[in-house]
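Weekly puzzle thread! Below is a chain. First person to post its structure in C-alpha coordinate form gets bragging rights.
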Amino acid sequence: MAPTALWAQQGHYNAFDAVQYDTKKQLHLQDLQRHSAVLPILNKDVIKYCGSDSLRTSGNKGFLGTVKNLKPLGFSKKNLKIAFYPTLDLSGGAESKDFRMFGGGAIGANLTADLGKRFSIGGYGRLSQYSFPGYLEKIIAKQRVVPGCGYAVPSALGGHYFWDWDVYANYEFLKYFNLEAGMGRNFWGDGYRSFFLSDQSFSYPYFKITTSFWKIKYVNLYAQLKDMRTTGSGLWSSMENKYGSFHFLSWDVSKRLNIGFFEAIIWQNEDSLAHRGFDINYLNPVIFYRPVEFSVGSPDNSLMGFSAKVKVAKKNFFYGQFLLDDIIWGEFSGGSINRIKHWIHPSDSVGAYGYWTNKQAWQLGFVSYDIFKIRDLDFQLEYNAARPYTFSHRMPGVNYSQYNEALAHPAGANFQEVLGFLKYRTGNFHFQLMGLFRETGIDTIGTHYGQDIFQSTFDTYYPELDNIPVSQYNNNIGQGIKTRLYYGSVKASWLFNKAMNLRAEAEVAVRRQSSSIATNTGVCFMLGLKTSWFQTGSDR
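Winning reply:
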Protein backbone atom coordinates (compact mmCIF):
# COMPACT_ATOMS: atom_id res chain seq x y z
CA MET A 1 0.00 0.00 0.00
CA ALA A 2 1.40 3.44 -0.94
CA PRO A 3 -0.81 6.35 0.08
CA THR A 4 -0.27 9.88 -1.21
CA ALA A 5 1.37 11.11 1.99
CA LEU A 6 2.91 8.56 4.30
CA TRP A 7 5.14 10.26 6.83
CA ALA A 8 5.92 9.73 10.52
CA GLN A 9 3.97 12.39 12.37
CA GLN A 10 6.63 12.82 15.06
CA GLY A 11 9.34 12.49 12.42
CA HIS A 12 11.61 15.17 11.01
CA TYR A 13 10.46 17.23 8.06
CA ASN A 14 13.38 16.69 5.70
CA ALA A 15 13.40 18.52 2.38
CA PHE A 16 16.09 20.17 0.31
CA ASP A 17 16.98 23.76 1.12
CA ALA A 18 14.51 25.56 -1.18
CA VAL A 19 11.51 23.59 0.12
CA GLN A 20 12.69 23.93 3.71
CA TYR A 21 12.82 27.67 3.10
CA ASP A 22 9.25 27.70 1.76
CA THR A 23 8.02 25.83 4.83
CA LYS A 24 9.85 28.12 7.23
CA LYS A 25 8.34 31.07 5.37
CA GLN A 26 4.84 29.70 6.00
CA LEU A 27 5.66 29.34 9.69
CA HIS A 28 6.91 32.93 9.81
CA LEU A 29 3.74 34.27 8.24
CA GLN A 30 1.45 32.67 10.82
CA ASP A 31 -0.22 34.97 13.35
CA LEU A 32 1.99 33.35 15.95
CA GLN A 33 5.59 32.78 14.95
CA ARG A 34 5.60 29.05 15.76
CA HIS A 35 9.16 28.92 17.14
CA SER A 36 10.67 28.70 13.67
CA ALA A 37 14.20 29.03 15.12
CA VAL A 38 14.16 25.41 16.34
CA LEU A 39 15.17 22.95 13.62
CA PRO A 40 14.58 20.28 12.50
CA ILE A 41 10.84 20.86 12.24
CA LEU A 42 8.53 17.93 12.98
CA ASN A 43 6.07 16.69 10.35
CA LYS A 44 3.16 17.15 12.74
CA ASP A 45 3.94 20.88 13.04
CA VAL A 46 4.18 21.26 9.27
CA ILE A 47 0.77 19.60 8.88
CA LYS A 48 -0.74 21.65 11.72
CA TYR A 49 0.46 25.05 10.54
CA CYS A 50 1.14 24.63 6.81
CA GLY A 51 -1.28 21.90 5.74
CA SER A 52 -0.73 18.30 4.66
CA ASP A 53 0.04 19.36 1.07
CA SER A 54 3.47 20.41 2.30
CA LEU A 55 4.32 16.72 2.66
CA ARG A 56 2.90 15.55 -0.65
CA THR A 57 4.11 15.21 -4.17
CA SER A 58 3.15 17.91 -6.64
CA GLY A 59 0.77 15.62 -8.53
CA ASN A 60 1.68 17.10 -11.89
CA LYS A 61 0.96 15.10 -15.01
CA GLY A 62 2.11 15.26 -18.59
CA PHE A 63 5.81 15.25 -19.41
CA LEU A 64 7.64 12.89 -17.12
CA GLY A 65 4.34 12.38 -15.31
CA THR A 66 5.27 8.91 -14.16
CA VAL A 67 8.46 10.17 -12.51
CA LYS A 68 6.70 13.15 -10.97
CA ASN A 69 4.12 10.97 -9.29
CA LEU A 70 6.40 8.32 -7.86
CA LYS A 71 5.73 7.78 -4.16
CA PRO A 72 7.74 6.23 -1.35
CA LEU A 73 7.24 2.53 -0.84
CA GLY A 74 4.92 2.26 2.12
CA PHE A 75 2.70 0.33 4.40
CA SER A 76 -0.20 1.67 6.47
CA LYS A 77 -2.46 -0.15 8.88
CA LYS A 78 -4.18 1.63 11.76
CA ASN A 79 -1.40 3.29 13.74
CA LEU A 80 1.43 1.60 11.89
CA LYS A 81 2.85 3.56 8.96
CA ILE A 82 6.13 2.94 7.18
CA ALA A 83 7.60 4.84 4.23
CA PHE A 84 10.85 4.06 2.45
CA TYR A 85 12.59 5.29 -0.66
CA PRO A 86 16.10 4.96 -2.07
CA THR A 87 18.16 8.07 -2.69
CA LEU A 88 20.46 8.78 -5.60
CA ASP A 89 22.60 11.84 -6.33
CA LEU A 90 24.55 12.49 -9.49
CA SER A 91 26.34 15.76 -10.14
CA GLY A 92 29.27 17.15 -12.00
CA GLY A 93 30.88 20.40 -12.89
CA ALA A 94 33.93 22.31 -13.97
CA GLU A 95 35.94 25.22 -12.61
CA SER A 96 37.73 27.77 -14.70
CA LYS A 97 41.05 27.46 -12.87
CA ASP A 98 43.08 24.87 -14.78
CA PHE A 99 39.80 23.78 -16.46
CA ARG A 100 39.40 21.23 -13.70
CA MET A 101 36.46 18.80 -13.65
CA PHE A 102 34.80 17.62 -10.43
CA GLY A 103 31.73 15.66 -9.35
CA GLY A 104 30.53 12.21 -8.37
CA GLY A 105 27.53 10.46 -6.91
CA ALA A 106 25.86 9.09 -3.79
CA ILE A 107 23.51 6.23 -3.03
CA GLY A 108 21.46 5.71 0.09
CA ALA A 109 18.03 5.25 1.62
CA ASN A 110 15.48 7.22 3.62
CA LEU A 111 13.07 5.63 6.11
CA THR A 112 10.28 7.02 8.30
CA ALA A 113 7.81 5.08 10.43
CA ASP A 114 4.99 5.67 12.90
CA LEU A 115 4.84 2.89 15.48
CA GLY A 116 1.68 3.94 17.25
CA LYS A 117 0.27 7.43 17.70
CA ARG A 118 3.17 8.85 19.68
CA PHE A 119 6.30 6.98 18.63
CA SER A 120 8.23 7.49 15.38
CA ILE A 121 11.58 6.48 13.98
CA GLY A 122 13.36 7.71 10.90
CA GLY A 123 16.55 8.69 9.22
CA TYR A 124 18.70 8.38 6.19
CA GLY A 125 22.13 7.10 5.23
CA ARG A 126 24.18 7.58 2.12
CA LEU A 127 27.60 6.65 0.77
CA SER A 128 29.15 9.28 -1.46
CA GLN A 129 32.11 9.50 -3.79
CA TYR A 130 32.93 13.04 -4.90
CA SER A 131 35.68 15.34 -5.99
CA PHE A 132 35.20 19.04 -5.28
CA PRO A 133 36.34 22.45 -6.51
CA GLY A 134 39.93 23.29 -5.59
CA TYR A 135 39.17 25.55 -2.62
CA LEU A 136 36.98 22.88 -1.00
CA GLU A 137 39.65 20.25 -1.59
CA LYS A 138 42.08 22.43 0.39
CA ILE A 139 39.60 22.67 3.27
CA ILE A 140 39.08 18.90 3.20
CA ALA A 141 42.84 18.26 3.21
CA LYS A 142 43.21 20.45 6.30
CA GLN A 143 40.30 19.18 8.38
CA ARG A 144 40.12 15.59 6.95
CA VAL A 145 36.33 15.90 6.77
CA VAL A 146 34.03 16.77 3.89
CA PRO A 147 32.26 19.94 5.10
CA GLY A 148 29.15 18.95 7.01
CA CYS A 149 29.62 15.27 6.17
CA GLY A 150 31.81 12.33 7.14
CA TYR A 151 35.50 11.50 7.25
CA ALA A 152 37.14 12.01 3.85
CA VAL A 153 38.75 8.77 2.62
CA PRO A 154 40.86 9.12 -0.55
CA SER A 155 39.22 7.38 -3.49
CA ALA A 156 40.94 5.55 -6.31
CA LEU A 157 38.42 7.23 -8.61
CA GLY A 158 39.64 10.65 -7.54
CA GLY A 159 38.35 12.84 -4.74
CA HIS A 160 36.98 11.15 -1.64
CA TYR A 161 34.33 8.79 -0.46
CA PHE A 162 32.49 9.37 2.81
CA TRP A 163 29.46 8.36 4.84
CA ASP A 164 26.72 10.75 5.91
CA TRP A 165 23.82 9.65 8.07
CA ASP A 166 21.10 10.85 10.42
CA VAL A 167 18.82 8.59 12.50
CA TYR A 168 16.40 9.25 15.35
CA ALA A 169 13.66 7.81 17.55
CA ASN A 170 10.99 10.23 18.73
CA TYR A 171 8.31 9.88 21.42
CA GLU A 172 5.57 12.33 22.41
CA PHE A 173 5.10 12.18 26.17
CA LEU A 174 2.16 13.62 28.14
CA LYS A 175 1.23 16.03 25.30
CA TYR A 176 3.74 18.72 26.35
CA PHE A 177 6.97 16.74 26.07
CA ASN A 178 8.82 15.24 23.13
CA LEU A 179 11.72 12.88 23.79
CA GLU A 180 14.19 12.17 21.02
CA ALA A 181 17.41 10.20 20.72
CA GLY A 182 19.50 9.87 17.62
CA MET A 183 22.59 10.60 15.61
CA GLY A 184 22.13 13.86 13.76
CA ARG A 185 22.35 17.64 13.66
CA ASN A 186 20.40 20.53 15.16
CA PHE A 187 20.05 24.17 14.14
CA TRP A 188 18.88 26.97 16.45
CA GLY A 189 18.36 30.32 14.79
CA ASP A 190 16.27 32.37 12.36
CA GLY A 191 19.10 33.27 10.02
CA TYR A 192 21.11 31.57 7.32
CA ARG A 193 23.90 31.26 9.91
CA SER A 194 23.65 30.59 13.62
CA PHE A 195 26.06 31.41 16.44
CA PHE A 196 24.15 29.20 18.87
CA LEU A 197 24.09 25.82 17.16
CA SER A 198 24.30 25.14 13.44
CA ASP A 199 24.08 22.09 11.20
CA GLN A 200 27.44 22.71 9.52
CA SER A 201 29.27 19.85 11.25
CA PHE A 202 28.98 16.08 11.01
CA SER A 203 26.20 14.23 12.88
CA TYR A 204 26.63 13.43 16.60
CA PRO A 205 24.81 11.19 19.11
CA TYR A 206 22.29 13.18 21.13
CA PHE A 207 19.33 13.02 23.47
CA LYS A 208 16.79 15.84 23.33
CA ILE A 209 13.84 16.88 25.48
CA THR A 210 11.47 19.44 23.94
CA THR A 211 8.87 21.01 26.20
CA SER A 212 6.04 22.97 24.55
CA PHE A 213 3.36 24.85 26.49
CA TRP A 214 1.57 28.18 26.28
CA LYS A 215 3.84 30.37 24.08
CA ILE A 216 7.03 28.59 25.12
CA LYS A 217 9.23 26.00 23.47
CA TYR A 218 12.14 24.85 25.63
CA VAL A 219 14.79 22.45 24.35
CA ASN A 220 17.33 20.48 26.37
CA LEU A 221 19.98 18.82 24.23
CA TYR A 222 22.72 16.49 25.47
CA ALA A 223 25.37 15.38 22.97
CA GLN A 224 28.51 13.35 22.63
CA LEU A 225 31.04 15.14 20.44
CA LYS A 226 34.36 14.07 18.96
CA ASP A 227 37.82 15.65 19.10
CA MET A 228 39.89 14.49 16.09
CA ARG A 229 43.07 16.43 16.87
CA THR A 230 44.86 13.58 18.66
CA THR A 231 44.40 10.89 16.02
CA GLY A 232 45.05 10.49 12.32
CA SER A 233 42.50 7.72 12.07
CA GLY A 234 39.01 8.04 10.69
CA LEU A 235 37.60 5.49 13.14
CA TRP A 236 34.94 6.98 15.41
CA SER A 237 36.19 4.90 18.35
CA SER A 238 39.76 6.22 18.02
CA MET A 239 38.73 9.85 18.54
CA GLU A 240 38.64 11.54 21.94
CA ASN A 241 35.21 12.02 23.46
CA LYS A 242 33.87 15.32 24.68
CA TYR A 243 30.35 16.27 25.66
CA GLY A 244 27.94 19.14 25.27
CA SER A 245 24.81 20.18 27.12
CA PHE A 246 22.64 22.87 25.53
CA HIS A 247 19.52 24.82 26.48
CA PHE A 248 17.37 26.96 24.20
CA LEU A 249 14.16 28.70 25.24
CA SER A 250 11.96 30.27 22.56
CA TRP A 251 9.15 32.57 23.74
CA ASP A 252 6.48 34.08 21.49
CA VAL A 253 5.98 37.24 23.54
CA SER A 254 3.35 38.48 21.10
CA LYS A 255 2.23 38.00 17.52
CA ARG A 256 5.11 40.21 16.44
CA LEU A 257 7.90 39.46 18.89
CA ASN A 258 9.82 36.30 19.68
CA ILE A 259 12.80 36.19 22.02
CA GLY A 260 15.15 33.34 22.83
CA PHE A 261 17.68 32.44 25.48
CA PHE A 262 20.60 30.07 24.88
CA GLU A 263 23.33 28.48 26.93
CA ALA A 264 25.82 25.68 26.39
CA ILE A 265 28.63 23.92 28.17
CA ILE A 266 31.37 21.78 26.59
CA TRP A 267 33.60 19.50 28.63
CA GLN A 268 36.22 16.84 28.04
CA ASN A 269 35.87 13.14 28.69
CA GLU A 270 39.09 13.35 30.68
CA ASP A 271 40.93 16.28 32.22
CA SER A 272 44.18 16.58 34.16
CA LEU A 273 42.53 15.29 37.34
CA ALA A 274 40.38 12.33 36.37
CA HIS A 275 38.15 10.53 33.92
CA ARG A 276 34.84 12.44 33.91
CA GLY A 277 32.64 10.94 31.22
CA PHE A 278 29.21 12.52 31.06
CA ASP A 279 29.08 14.93 34.01
CA ILE A 280 25.71 14.54 35.78
CA ASN A 281 26.08 18.08 37.19
CA TYR A 282 24.98 19.32 33.78
CA LEU A 283 21.85 17.17 33.55
CA ASN A 284 19.71 19.74 35.37
CA PRO A 285 17.33 20.99 32.66
CA VAL A 286 16.62 24.44 34.11
CA ILE A 287 19.62 25.77 36.05
CA PHE A 288 22.14 28.11 34.46
CA TYR A 289 25.40 26.40 33.59
CA ARG A 290 27.74 29.17 34.68
CA PRO A 291 27.00 28.76 38.43
CA VAL A 292 27.32 24.98 38.08
CA GLU A 293 30.65 25.37 36.30
CA PHE A 294 32.02 27.54 39.10
CA SER A 295 30.60 25.26 41.81
CA VAL A 296 32.47 22.21 40.52
CA GLY A 297 35.63 24.22 39.85
CA SER A 298 35.78 23.01 36.27
CA PRO A 299 37.84 24.20 33.30
CA ASP A 300 34.83 23.75 31.00
CA ASN A 301 33.75 26.02 28.17
CA SER A 302 30.46 27.83 28.72
CA LEU A 303 28.55 30.09 26.36
CA MET A 304 25.36 32.14 26.68
CA GLY A 305 23.21 33.95 24.15
CA PHE A 306 20.11 35.99 23.42
CA SER A 307 18.02 36.13 20.23
CA ALA A 308 15.10 38.17 18.98
CA LYS A 309 12.79 38.27 15.97
CA VAL A 310 10.43 41.15 15.26
CA LYS A 311 7.64 41.16 12.69
CA VAL A 312 7.13 44.50 10.90
CA ALA A 313 3.96 44.99 8.87
CA LYS A 314 2.74 41.68 7.42
CA LYS A 315 5.76 40.18 5.69
CA ASN A 316 8.93 41.77 7.05
CA PHE A 317 11.12 40.46 9.86
CA PHE A 318 14.19 41.64 11.70
CA TYR A 319 16.12 38.98 13.58
CA GLY A 320 19.36 38.71 15.47
CA GLN A 321 21.56 36.84 17.91
CA PHE A 322 24.11 37.89 20.49
CA LEU A 323 26.47 35.25 21.86
CA LEU A 324 28.68 35.74 24.89
CA ASP A 325 31.58 33.32 25.12
CA ASP A 326 33.55 35.14 27.78
CA ILE A 327 33.79 38.64 29.19
CA ILE A 328 35.40 40.71 31.94
CA TRP A 329 33.00 43.55 32.55
CA GLY A 330 35.61 46.04 33.73
CA GLU A 331 37.73 45.48 30.64
CA PHE A 332 34.64 45.52 28.43
CA SER A 333 33.19 48.79 29.73
CA GLY A 334 36.48 50.63 30.01
CA GLY A 335 37.72 49.22 26.71
CA SER A 336 34.53 50.27 24.92
CA ILE A 337 34.98 53.87 26.10
CA ASN A 338 38.63 53.88 25.05
CA ARG A 339 37.76 52.38 21.67
CA ILE A 340 35.20 55.16 21.02
CA LYS A 341 37.82 57.76 21.99
CA HIS A 342 40.24 56.16 19.55
CA TRP A 343 37.66 56.28 16.74
CA ILE A 344 37.02 59.97 17.39
CA HIS A 345 40.67 60.92 17.79
CA PRO A 346 42.85 58.23 16.18
CA SER A 347 46.10 60.15 16.76
CA ASP A 348 45.56 60.64 20.52
CA SER A 349 46.97 58.27 23.10
CA VAL A 350 44.08 56.47 24.78
CA GLY A 351 43.79 53.67 27.29
CA ALA A 352 43.77 49.97 26.45
CA TYR A 353 40.89 48.30 24.65
CA GLY A 354 40.16 45.02 22.90
CA TYR A 355 40.91 42.69 25.83
CA TRP A 356 41.45 39.12 24.65
CA THR A 357 38.80 37.49 26.86
CA ASN A 358 36.03 39.74 25.59
CA LYS A 359 34.79 37.10 23.17
CA GLN A 360 31.42 37.71 21.55
CA ALA A 361 29.59 37.08 18.29
CA TRP A 362 26.51 38.78 16.90
CA GLN A 363 24.08 38.59 14.03
CA LEU A 364 21.60 41.04 12.57
CA GLY A 365 19.31 40.12 9.70
CA PHE A 366 16.29 41.23 7.72
CA VAL A 367 13.95 39.22 5.52
CA SER A 368 11.08 40.46 3.40
CA TYR A 369 8.61 38.14 1.67
CA ASP A 370 6.73 38.83 -1.59
CA ILE A 371 8.64 42.04 -2.25
CA PHE A 372 7.24 44.53 -4.75
CA LYS A 373 3.96 42.63 -4.25
CA ILE A 374 5.34 39.80 -6.38
CA ARG A 375 4.28 36.49 -4.89
CA ASP A 376 7.18 34.26 -3.79
CA LEU A 377 9.86 36.85 -4.57
CA ASP A 378 11.79 37.15 -1.29
CA PHE A 379 14.80 39.12 -0.08
CA GLN A 380 17.14 38.43 2.83
CA LEU A 381 20.13 40.37 4.14
CA GLU A 382 22.32 39.22 7.04
CA TYR A 383 25.38 40.50 8.91
CA ASN A 384 27.50 38.21 11.09
CA ALA A 385 30.59 38.97 13.15
CA ALA A 386 32.70 37.16 15.73
CA ARG A 387 35.50 38.71 17.74
CA PRO A 388 38.95 37.10 17.83
CA TYR A 389 39.25 33.94 19.96
CA THR A 390 35.47 33.43 20.27
CA PHE A 391 34.54 29.71 20.55
CA SER A 392 38.15 28.76 21.40
CA HIS A 393 39.47 27.85 24.85
CA ARG A 394 42.69 27.44 26.81
CA MET A 395 42.12 23.68 26.54
CA PRO A 396 41.55 23.01 22.82
CA GLY A 397 39.63 19.83 23.66
CA VAL A 398 36.68 21.89 24.92
CA ASN A 399 36.44 24.37 22.08
CA TYR A 400 33.02 24.79 20.43
CA SER A 401 33.46 22.19 17.74
CA GLN A 402 32.55 18.69 16.57
CA TYR A 403 34.55 16.39 14.32
CA ASN A 404 37.10 19.07 13.28
CA GLU A 405 34.37 21.60 12.38
CA ALA A 406 32.81 24.51 14.21
CA LEU A 407 29.46 23.96 15.93
CA ALA A 408 28.51 27.54 15.08
CA HIS A 409 29.80 29.47 12.06
CA PRO A 410 32.02 27.50 9.64
CA ALA A 411 34.46 30.45 9.44
CA GLY A 412 35.39 30.05 13.13
CA ALA A 413 36.06 33.51 14.61
CA ASN A 414 37.85 36.82 13.94
CA PHE A 415 35.65 37.70 10.97
CA GLN A 416 32.73 39.76 9.77
CA GLU A 417 30.51 39.01 6.81
CA VAL A 418 27.54 40.32 4.89
CA LEU A 419 25.42 37.99 2.82
CA GLY A 420 22.25 38.43 0.85
CA PHE A 421 19.69 36.37 -1.02
CA LEU A 422 17.07 37.01 -3.66
CA LYS A 423 14.76 34.01 -4.04
CA TYR A 424 11.88 33.30 -6.36
CA ARG A 425 9.59 30.32 -6.82
CA THR A 426 7.12 29.64 -9.58
CA GLY A 427 5.42 26.26 -9.60
CA ASN A 428 8.09 23.61 -9.13
CA PHE A 429 10.95 25.92 -10.14
CA HIS A 430 13.14 27.57 -7.50
CA PHE A 431 15.67 30.30 -8.27
CA GLN A 432 18.26 31.79 -5.94
CA LEU A 433 20.73 34.64 -6.29
CA MET A 434 23.29 34.78 -3.48
CA GLY A 435 26.09 37.19 -2.65
CA LEU A 436 28.60 37.06 0.20
CA PHE A 437 31.46 39.24 1.42
CA ARG A 438 33.63 38.15 4.35
CA GLU A 439 36.69 39.71 5.93
CA THR A 440 38.79 37.42 8.11
CA GLY A 441 42.09 37.74 9.92
CA ILE A 442 44.08 34.52 9.46
CA ASP A 443 47.28 33.22 11.03
CA THR A 444 50.73 32.60 9.67
CA ILE A 445 53.13 30.05 11.12
CA GLY A 446 53.81 30.83 14.78
CA THR A 447 50.93 33.28 15.23
CA HIS A 448 47.47 33.06 16.78
CA TYR A 449 45.23 35.99 15.88
CA GLY A 450 41.97 34.34 16.82
CA GLN A 451 40.41 32.79 13.71
CA ASP A 452 41.50 29.20 14.39
CA ILE A 453 39.26 27.96 17.20
CA PHE A 454 41.32 24.75 17.48
CA GLN A 455 44.37 26.57 18.89
CA SER A 456 44.90 26.91 22.64
CA THR A 457 43.93 30.46 23.64
CA PHE A 458 45.63 32.05 26.63
CA ASP A 459 47.83 35.09 27.28
CA THR A 460 50.48 33.07 29.13
CA TYR A 461 52.69 30.29 27.83
CA TYR A 462 52.00 26.78 29.19
CA PRO A 463 54.70 24.19 28.36
CA GLU A 464 52.21 21.31 28.55
CA LEU A 465 50.04 23.04 25.94
CA ASP A 466 52.89 24.52 23.88
CA ASN A 467 50.51 27.38 23.14
CA ILE A 468 51.17 30.67 21.39
CA PRO A 469 50.45 33.44 23.95
CA VAL A 470 47.91 35.95 22.64
CA SER A 471 48.09 39.71 22.98
CA GLN A 472 46.19 40.97 26.00
CA TYR A 473 44.92 44.20 24.40
CA ASN A 474 44.17 45.86 21.06
CA ASN A 475 42.50 42.80 19.59
CA ASN A 476 40.24 43.69 16.67
CA ILE A 477 38.16 41.79 14.14
CA GLY A 478 40.31 41.13 11.09
CA GLN A 479 43.67 41.25 12.86
CA GLY A 480 46.35 39.05 11.31
CA ILE A 481 46.60 38.50 7.57
CA LYS A 482 43.49 40.29 6.39
CA THR A 483 41.71 38.06 3.89
CA ARG A 484 38.67 39.03 1.86
CA LEU A 485 36.26 36.54 0.35
CA TYR A 486 33.78 37.42 -2.38
CA TYR A 487 31.30 34.74 -3.34
CA GLY A 488 28.32 34.93 -5.67
CA SER A 489 26.10 32.27 -7.17
CA VAL A 490 23.00 31.80 -9.29
CA LYS A 491 21.14 28.55 -8.70
CA ALA A 492 18.05 27.04 -10.33
CA SER A 493 16.19 23.91 -9.19
CA TRP A 494 13.37 22.04 -10.85
CA LEU A 495 11.51 19.86 -8.36
CA PHE A 496 10.15 16.81 -10.19
CA ASN A 497 8.73 15.09 -7.14
CA LYS A 498 8.28 16.71 -3.76
CA ALA A 499 7.58 13.48 -1.88
CA MET A 500 10.99 12.09 -2.81
CA ASN A 501 12.98 15.35 -3.10
CA LEU A 502 13.73 14.46 -6.74
CA ARG A 503 15.04 17.51 -8.54
CA ALA A 504 17.41 18.79 -11.20
CA GLU A 505 19.81 21.58 -10.25
CA ALA A 506 22.11 23.96 -12.08
CA GLU A 507 24.42 26.49 -10.46
CA VAL A 508 27.07 29.00 -11.48
CA ALA A 509 29.34 30.34 -8.73
CA VAL A 510 32.12 32.92 -8.71
CA ARG A 511 34.61 32.93 -5.84
CA ARG A 512 37.49 35.32 -5.20
CA GLN A 513 39.75 35.23 -2.15
CA SER A 514 42.45 37.85 -1.75
CA SER A 515 45.09 38.74 0.83
CA SER A 516 48.60 40.17 0.93
CA ILE A 517 49.88 36.60 0.43
CA ALA A 518 47.84 35.41 -2.53
CA THR A 519 44.77 36.00 -4.65
CA ASN A 520 42.65 33.21 -6.11
CA THR A 521 39.70 33.60 -8.43
CA GLY A 522 37.56 30.87 -9.89
CA VAL A 523 34.28 30.25 -11.66
CA CYS A 524 32.41 26.97 -11.18
CA PHE A 525 29.54 25.52 -13.16
CA MET A 526 27.56 22.60 -11.71
CA LEU A 527 24.73 20.32 -12.85
CA GLY A 528 23.04 17.65 -10.78
CA LEU A 529 20.14 15.24 -10.36
CA LYS A 530 19.47 14.71 -6.66
CA THR A 531 17.13 13.22 -4.07
CA SER A 532 19.10 13.87 -0.86
CA TRP A 533 18.07 16.79 1.31
CA PHE A 534 21.34 17.67 3.06
CA GLN A 535 23.91 19.40 0.90
CA THR A 536 27.56 20.28 1.42
CA GLY A 537 27.96 24.03 1.85
CA SER A 538 29.98 25.53 -0.99
CA ASP A 539 30.10 29.07 0.45
CA ARG A 540 33.15 28.37 2.65
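Puzzle host: Confirmed. Bonus trivia for everyone else. The two ends are 44 Å apart (CA to CA).
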